Structures are given as structure tokens and as C-alpha cells.
Amino acid sequence: MNVTVKTFAQLREITQEGCFTLTLPESAVTMGDVITLLKSRSDKWSQALGASAGSENGSVLMARNQQLCDIQTHVQPGDELAFFPPVTGG
Amino acid sequence: MFALIGDADFDQQWLYNRLRQEASQKAKGNVGAIVTFTGLVRDNNADGNILGIELEHYPGMTEQALTNLVQEAITRFSLTSAGAVHRVGRLYNDEQIVWVGTAAPHRAAAFEGANFLMDMLKQSVPLWKKEFTRDNSRWVEVKASDDKAALAWLREK
Known about the structure:
The structure holds two protein chains of two kinds.
Chain A: E1 2-7, H1 9-15, E2 19-23, H2 31-39, H3 43-49, E3 61-64, E4 67-69, E5 80-84
Parallel strand pairs in A: 1-5
Antiparallel strand pairs in A: 1-2, 3-4, 3-5
Helix pairs in contact in A: 1-3
Chain B: E1 2-6, H1 12-27, E2 33-40, E3 44-45, E4 48-49, E5 52-57, H2 61-76, E6 81-87, E7 89-92, E8 96-104, H3 107-124, E9 127-132, E10 137-139, H4 144-155
Parallel strand pairs in B: 1-6
Antiparallel strand pairs in B: 2-8, 3-4, 5-7, 5-9, 6-8, 9-10
Helix pairs in contact in B: 2-3
């Protein structure tokens, strides 16, 4: 299945991929699976997601269809998945 | 209520009028307090002077998160109405960057609601600041304790 992957801020700069379509194997069902797949995509992605992505005190937040989620969240065909650092507005 | 994201500067008087009108339509005669806050871009950080900031956002999610936040403030503090505006893009020192406004029967709720909006906005709305100087630029870091609060806040939606 295909999903759209988006990145923002530091993650966008490190990966140099702000928005692209990712084809997931059938075995990939959760955000955690997607992270594993992305980490193997390139050294840049491995660096961007790091060891702490998805953990409670991780420095990477993730969203499925514009709602924050976690590594246990299931993904569906056509989903928009996003990865970004903690927010700094205000 | 209203929640606006945009790159253009905003007019406080227009926002105040809109909030006052909305509150009046909802509870005419019982709006005793309106509190507004405006944030400006400072010309310095811990390391020295900066020229301004670049604000990145997540189109779609940012608007929704800000809307959720304003609605949460209205419910939590029994506000008559509330509004929030955040600018994105490149902003120079002394420019307006953020505005929140709250209307309530009494001032305590209006002040509390405005404080809540600003505190949570800094944690739960997908916006990222990058400070730039003449020679380079740097993403603004956030405290680890803020990450957890942000995640907890949005998971409640």
C-alpha cells in the first residue's frame, strides 16, 4: 500500500525529503514498522529518526492524518504520515 | 471563536472587535471582561542578537490544532468566546507574531483562559521557529518536559 510521508523543520532539513509517496510492504502495519522502514531508507533518515523516535521522551513526534499518534498506531492505505520535532511556536 | 494562521500582519483592533462582537452575540450584557495578549519578535536570544525568525508550520494540522486549543480553552474556563492568531513565514524583530483573546463574564476566567492559550500554544500547535542572524540560522530548541505535555495534550483529542 502507498502512504504519503511528510517531514517538517529539522527533520525536513536532515532527510531532504519534505513530502513523498512511500510504498509499504504488507508486513508494515504500524507507525513503528514505518519508522523501521524509513530508518533503512538512508543514513539521513536513520539520523533524523534516531534511536529515540517513538519513545516516551523521544525527540521526534509523529502524526497520522494530521492527528498526533505513536508507534502503536495502525496505518491504512492513503494515510498522510508526518514526522517532526517538538513544537516551538508562541 | 476563531483560530487563524497566516503570513500577513494582523490588526489588534479588528481582532478585538471580532471577539467582542462574537461574545456579545452569544451573551449580550453579560460579557464583563475581555483579555488580549500580543506577542512580538524579540531581537535577541541567549547567545546574542538576531535579525528575526522564520516560522514553519504543518498546513492543515496547524489550523486544526489551534482550533482545538481555542475550543478547549472555552470549555475549560467557561469563556463566552475566544480567538487566536499565529503568523508563519519570515518575521523580523519587533513584528507581531501571535495574538490571543478571551471574553468572559468576569476577569479571572478571561486572564486564566489567555494564559492557558499561550502556554498550550507553545506546546501543542505544530509551529517551528528558526532564528536567523546575518551569518547563519538555528532552530529554536524546546525543553524535554514540554514534549511530554504536548503529546499528552494532543492525544486527548
